[in-house]
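Exam revision sheet. Question 4 asks you to relate a sequence to its structure. Input first:
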Amino acid sequence: MFRLEGSQLAPGVIEKWELAPDGLSWLYNVRKGIKFHNGDDLTADDVKFTIDEYTSAKALQSQTRGAVDRVDKVDSYAVRVFTKGKQPFLPSLASWFSPGQGVVLPKKYVEQSGVDGFDRRPVG
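Answer key, structure tokens:
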């Protein structure tokens, strides 16, 4: 979702992110105009779905699950990520620094093809 420029987080799929004043949630603004290679638009639905997958009990890594309480869709291109306590480094969990959790999944495609179908013919 984010990329690294040197040692700094830089915009990627998430073009802007903002920590709430109380430190307990992050607003992620999704970059418009990104398409998965099957032609589907990448939207907040995909980002929410991805974070929900990374916080599920079946997730292979637990860092996001330990940090995130829930994700709410704000609009077609924004999500609010509510955290379990203050998580000042949350965006780094969704970067190529942590590649197992920095890739956005295509919600519609995964739901249509199932996990096995996605594994056989991934869309990114």
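Marking note for examiners. The mean pLDDT is 90.
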